[in-house]
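Note to self: the last two entries modelled the partners one at a time, which told us nothing about the interface. This time every component goes in together.
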Amino acid sequence: MRDVIVIGAGGGGAVMAKELAERGLDVLVLEAGPRHADPEREWSHFENDANNPVTGYFRWGPADRSKSAWLRETPQNCFVWQLSGVGGTTQHYYGNCPRAYPGVFRGYGGADRDAYDRAHEFPFSYRKLVPYYEWVEHTLPVQTAPIGTKEDVWLTGASRLGVPFAGSKDALGDQYRPQENAILQPHGNAGKTSDPNKLVFPKARGCTFCGYCFQGCYEPRHAPRNLRAKRSTDNSYIPMALTANHWKKGGKAATLLTDAFATKVGTVQEGGAQVARTVTWRVGASGQSFTEEAKVVVMAGGCTENPRLWLNSGLPNPNDWVGRGYTDHYFDWLIGKFDKYTGSSKGAGSNARMDYPGRGGLENVGLPPGLQAFSTTFSDGGVNDVYLNGYPKTAGVYGNGRRVGTLLKSLLEDVDRLLNVLVITDDDVEAQNRVTLSSTLPADENGAVAKIEFKYRQRTKRTLDNREFLVGRGVELLRKAGAKEVYRINWPPLILHVQSTMRMGLDPTNSVLDTNCESRAVKRLFIGDNSALPNSLGGPNPTLTSQALATRTAEKIFHLYFGGDPWVRTESPVSSINDRVTKGVLAQKL
Amino acid sequence: MAGSESGISRRVLLERAGLAGAGLVLAQLPGFLSGKGWLEQAYAQSADEVRETLDALVAFVVPGPDPYSVAQGQSTKEPGGIDAGATDLLIELLDRFVQLPAGTLPSSGGVAQLLNGYAVQVNPVAAGGTFASPFARLKFEEKIAVFERFETQTEGTEVRFVSGILIGAVGFLSFGEGSALDKGTRKLTRTPTGWTLTKYAGVAEGRAELRGYWKGRRKVTTSAKYRVHR
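The predicted structure of the combined assembly is written out below.
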């Protein structure tokens, strides 16, 4: 019997695995997709090669790219950007690591406390999570982002909006700032040249400003895996989990199985309670199924797959909240067109942001041409202002909705004279936005498939008002940065920041997990990723907070079921770029 | 050619549409086509008609000097999506959502039928003309009208996903490197059209873009308000 089985090696599961392996537990990690062990060979800087949702190496599907992607029912205008593989969606994330807004936590006493989703707050205070934030920020590590041209232009616009420059890691009010990113700062030749011969480790260290965060980070080339610039968990936490015996006295290296799709969590009755005991998974290549027992099971397959696995396993759902409360930051997208160079396609994906606690936030996003075109044509707001699909015109913009035809070509005529603003809405937890099992699509080889429903036109007034407020600020930012034309694309749900489908909470009538992230209905069953979050954090990107919460959950597991003591307040974390980790990575040829 | 839909179970319809087994976001497509009275026409389409329809869609999103762009009354001297090879990529994208059994209606065919069905609604004269595809016979403004109907009339159905994502998919495929990349060597065979159109500098291992740190600040910590003393 294993001590712990972790289902999913993404942004959260990898943290659970590393923390518990560091404590010397016997940890098995199951990952449905591949591990890209040689990204310099397996990945590229080509966006269709990487991001095509059917054929790309970053997709929700099996390792064999000749096989079909896995599917979900999405009965609305939307796009779900979900990935399989070690690292999960951190493989394509931008490494943005803002902390959640203090206002979404229990006990918050600020004057703006009613501006937040009070009915679905964190069941403990912000102050209690801060040590876990610091632990993760040191481990990844998280560093202040450098700036290139696009950040210079963007932050100049932001600085003219009358809000202060952020002074700390915390969002204490409206503010603008360079991102705190899980990307190593540039050193040596990094950021100073495009000559590939000069961008080889160790001549270059940290971010080389290549512009391909979304295609996966393998820069600088020839660096040990744990020293690649972006701290996706395939570069940080998973190498640590697999080498725990090298860098931690008493640590035990975790076991990682890829191409292993978990299909069932089995339970037993023990002392009058239903208790998780087994995990069954299917190996994609062979079709064989295996089952192992564990003292504790952690589900970390993401906001869509955790509810799917739960329901496919026939686990209890007494209050019907499994899969409900899906939040996605109801993004929108603004594009400014400039008559000067912005360098929008170059550098890290996002190095600049604005925080509006109680409303959400804004961030800069730079893209290569294919994704820039997608961002310009993915819309719920009609075509070329000829029709707006029922939405009113937005004040101060040159165009609403998609651009198509010569207008599209004109807008995209120089990708490095554009500047993007991603609108990240503080959206309410709503029961109607949810994951269930599809009754329309036939089951696939891994069981009934997920159905994702977002009633996005019927979201709460607060959510819709927040989005409009942020659009207004974003338009103003672009104008003050010097944009000659501003476009509001009016995206439908781009389900990329995902939160809260297995939410923790104090109120047992609208949450699945208790304050330890353990299921109320099934003991020894924990959730270790974004789906455990009780709300949308107020708008900040969710990965860092999920990782802090996963660290806290690992402590709870170790204390509750293995008799250990908590460590975050008493020990110092080991960084994933520590020499001991590097030696372990090299020794194990990871 | 499939038989008439009368007496055919939903299951059979799904199988004929290549949708059973692996499931598909287009699972409600046959039912939707049937509700519109377009299912038989969907099966009757030739491969050329499907391709023409999707060529006309690509020309609508990213026009160029091709005949479909000229026919819609909006064309450009510089290359467009068809020159970028987006049509083949779109057909692959639509049809590879599932592995299709032989002899069934590919998803590209279902999508083509939807566009052609709405095309005839928007302009009945489009039922006959130069191209095999009614959608390809439309003017640019009429194609916009097709999408207005396509989006509003599919609201609340599974097909709404398709009506929403289709233009975005063409945009992505037209401006990416797709058809210019040799899948075997993973090297470019030519400069991608979308790169030329957007003046994109091309891929690189890094860029000389570092300007420094905003206000010279390289690090921040927890605020005094929330600092926890260990």
